[in-house]
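[stage:ingest] chain + small molecule (phosphoenolpyruvate)
[stage:ingest] validated
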Amino acid sequence: MYTQELLPGLDPKEPLIICGPCSAETEDQVMTTARDLAGYGAKVFRAGIWKPRTKPGGFEGVGVKGLPWLKRVKEETGMYVSTEVATKAHVEAALEAGIDLLWIGARTSANPFAMQEIADTLAAIGKDVPVLVKNPVNPDLELWIGAIQRIRNAGVKRVGAIHRGFSAYGKHLYRNMPQWHIPIELGRRMPEIPIICDPSHIGGKRELIAPLSQQSFDMGFDGLIIESHCNPDEAWSDAAQQVTPDALNLIINSLVPLNGAKPDSTESLTLLRQEIDRLDNELLEVLGKRMRVCREIGQYKKEHGMRVVQGARYGDMMKNRIDLAHEMGMGEEFMRRVMAAIHEESVRQQLEIFKNK
Ligand code: PEP
Ligand code: MN
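[stage:predict] done
[stage:export] tokens:
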């Protein structure tokens, strides 16, 4: 559990909740949403001013003209305000406008040049602002850690991480795959930083926000960032995943918190074990496929009057697999035993074919 206050008055023992629209669209939309959220006790408001869109032609954010709207949110509601930055110009404009917290988006944290530019800008300005780094779009923990390190090396003291899931090709239940073991491993590697969950971008749909939020609480995440819009169906970006402030309030109140204690960690252990079960199933499927191919080879050898065991082939295969295992950080003796056992079973299956008339 992290201990440092991310913003004055926000107790690190309480979940950090950041909420607000995906994008600032109009002053009216920002103010209406902000007033409703503040009415429910929200303390940190979010709104994207610059939007990284996948394709040209999408809504790319209102830009600097939206910054005074966030200033107004701060003055009228007392909430802290936050936005996404991706370039030097964004950082300069956001800090100039008095934005209280910055976050770095998933497309930006995947790019070390952009991360370094942001870090250098933060170092040059020297203002002590908290920065949250979203995971890169691709499931690369080292890239995520590297992005966080660049911000830290710039002298930023209050740094946190946001888990927003990882993209995958094709259609899936989630917009971005949770792959919980990755943020869990980040927490193990950097236990001092807060890690919050972004169920809006993981789920991509309203109905997944509550279950994903609860799951993240159960795993000991330190908070949530959730998209909320006064009129979600008409939102200019991410309409399917935004909820009204009323709905957000219901979701937050339905969550069972862990009273600050990280579940050290039966739930995260359960998830990691599920991941192990899944990987073991994959391993078994691959082994099953290998045995099928071996039986086909057995059939070929039988038809061509060849012996089951070809000595040279065995030696080459063993050497190649042991070298590969070594490169992957596994012991040579371990791989020799695994391959010997697999080979023994393959030979047994081929001998069965030889026995069949
Ligand atoms: C966002 O928070 O609106 C956003 C663009 O998120 P991500 O970088 O996770 O896609
Ligand atoms: Mn969004």
